[in-house]
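Worked example

This section walks through a single chain of length 294. The input is the sequence exactly as stored; nothing has been trimmed or padded.
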Amino acid sequence: MAEQNDDSSVGAPEAAANPVTSRRSMRELARTAQGQVTRTKTAVARAARPARTGSSFRKPLRSIVTLSMVGGLVVAVGLPAYAAFNGGADAATIEQVAAENPQSLVVASTVTSADLDRGSYAATTPEEIEKKKAAEAAAARIAAAGSAASFSAANVDLNMVAPGSGAVRWPLDMSQIRVGRGFGADGYHQGVDLLGAAGTPEFAAAAGTVRVAGWYYGYGYAVVLDSVINGQSVTTLYGHMTQTLVNPGDYVEAGQIIGLMGSTGSSTANHLHFEVRIGGGLVDPYAWLQANAG
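Given that input, the structure is written out below as tokens.
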């Protein structure tokens, strides 16, 4: 019996025989459990907290700033425009503005409206301009008709120089020329028409200074020469040229080429319209040529 009791005491657990080891194991178990609890709480807190990154935070901020800028622009533009078009009680006339601000420039006009008609403005197309110039030339010729009738060959001695002296020359080579309409007794046709081919050379009938060379009213391209023959003032005109070959201010000799025959201005065929004025009065140009040209 005594040996059985000894055997039972030897087989008892080690923990009962070593209490220090048992306490250490309990503390480690407790520490492990505590750590597990802490990790669980941390995981739960992280899961509950919403994720916020720098990118997701900047996007709403950028949108807010953009909207603020757009709103500011709308206010800055809208208010002046509203003020400009708001014609309320504060609207002022330009006279009031000038009275309040001496530095303001107020321009007023006293022009009144008027109805337009064909006589209230000038011609604006080349055709209308040419017609107007032709009408002016015709009016000038008609105005001079009164003096032309009395200042003709019947009242003026057309013999100024001896024929063949060279002081007066025929303005064309008459061998190829046909005489057309002559000088009108009523002064309406103030020259003589000498018909020929286009481009026929035309010559100065007397030495003198070129007063006109170019487009000349209804005469088209024309040359006007001022000469002095035996102390008398003589002006010769050469109309309807296709081209002038001298310039205003040039001095030309009798018989010098001054242009080419054509049909410019108020003309229906190639010809030279030739006029002669002595002392400012019209004379029969063909009779003058016959009396003086050689």
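What to look for: Residues 54-85 form the longest helix (32 residues).
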